[in-house]
Amino acid sequence: MRASLPRSLLLVALAGAAQAASLAWPFAFGLAPGAPVWWLQLLSLGALAWQVDRCRAGGNWRRAAGLGWLFALCWLSGTFWWLFISMHTYGGLPAVLAVLAVAALAALLALYYAAACAAFVALAPASNALSAILFAALWLLAELARDQWFTGFPWGAGGYAQVDALGVFASSVGVFGVGWIATLVAYLMAAWLRQPGAALGLRPWGLLAALLPVAILVGLARHPWSTDGGTLGVTLLQGNIPQDEKFQGGSGIPVALQWYGERLQAARTPLVVAPETAIPLLPQQLPEGYWAALQQRFAQPGLRGPQAALIGIPLGSYEQGYTNSALGLAPGQTAPYRYDKHHLVPFGEFIPPLFRWFTEMMNIPLGDFNRGAVGQPSFTVHGQRLAPNICYEDLFGEELGARFGEAASAPTIFVNMSNIGWFGDSVAIDQHLQISRMRALEFERPMIRATNTGATVIIDYRGHVTRALPRYTRGLLVGEVQGRNGITPYAWWVSRLGLWPLWALGFLSVALALWQRWGAGRPVKSGLRRA
């Protein structure tokens, strides 16, 4: 029996909100705050699959598109609602305009998923197994489009909710492959709940087509791809400079210069890391002797041997352009190591064409950076090859993967330097932490994170947080991190082919569904039919 439209709309809206919550539990009750909830993500996506599949009976692709769009709208706006804080609280944009901006972004990105659901109804074969493959493939293509088209903004991809449950597959297929597996499971779960007899009666070839890729991945996941590369002592600085004061000359700037300067001078570990724009001025704007003192400090070996520092600082000039950068200081250098951020934040770090009017409505300091290159060299410290990434650059695994073309020069440790203070004390901190954990799993590399307000942590190559500072406190996190050598399957293919293998998987799955549908010689009149 066809469900009423209001009931279907309510169900998919709630399911979309649940999908957002599954990425990092946003409440202080019920479940562990900030933790991913893998089963909730499967249930939410399964609920959407159930409702979209109902549209197949009448070939109602328009209704399917609407349901997919509403689900994604609630999911995405519920995921990155904290953009409101950066635009309104710190950017000065009127509240109404900030709400509309977040809603508009979510609504536009939701079109990818609307198209996926519409295409599913239009193309779905009678087979349960192939329908599951088609649904998962179309959802995968939507996720890839959101990641790569225009500026790319894949924050909140469904695979991050599976970092604990299905993260074992990340070293083979990456977060989008993990999301593909989860979507496949969610659809089959919906099939079983709606028609248990039909779902359990899958023909052997249909079951094989649906589960063989997963079985292969299970075998790959059991193989260790990296080896111990030795340990490195680190000190990670968390200044907790209030965001509304960070770039103010009478408050945040002198506090930042004093606190970070003192901690950098006093560090005793082989590596000390200060977060993104820890030094909130261009070098030529610093007090006389400030930068020279830091360079002199790390030019000479410390009491316990050579020491190095990675410091977040803008570089360049207002006249010729500037970059969001990390400078590495170490003994024996002819010039400091330099990393320039490549993947800039739209509106916050660069102005998209035709949108200068929008950015001029906000008060964002240093708002139009120049872009660095992809795959910049690592910073070598005590035999470890450190790969910096700034802010949300660790969201783009394919860009981090560009550094893994050669095993001998591949990074042994990732270093994330962030300032999530722009988004207040929100779930953005927890969501970003799960993103970093997924990158660690994909490449079997540890990730150390130095941030202004949190989460300042050490993540091992298995994706486990081994040490952490309390958030919104000023302090130092001192510990050891184990570097890793070796190349995972994901690192191998993404460094050479980017995400094209996943695009190919999606389109080949669609082609398989079309072949089965045309070969059957008859239209599909109802959903979840047979294998």
Automatic annotation (TrEMBL):
Pathway: Protein modification; lipoprotein biosynthesis (N-acyl transfer)
GO cellular component, one term: plasma membrane
Region forming the signal peptide: 1-20
Record's keyword terms, sorted: Acyltransferase, Cell membrane, Lipoprotein, Membrane, Signal, Transferase, Transmembrane, Transmembrane helix
Chief location category: membrane
Entry keyword annotation includes Acyltransferase: yes
EC numbers for this chain: 2.3.1.269
Localization: Cell membrane
Transmembrane feature ranges: 36-52, 64-84, 90-113, 120-142, 168-193, 205-225, 490-515
HAMAP family reported in the protein's UniProt record: Lnt (MF_01148)
Primary role: Catalyzes the phospholipid dependent N-acylation of the N-terminal cysteine of apolipoprotein, the last step in lipoprotein maturation.
Name this polypeptide is given: Apolipoprotein N-acyltransferase
The species this protein was found in: Rhodoferax sediminis
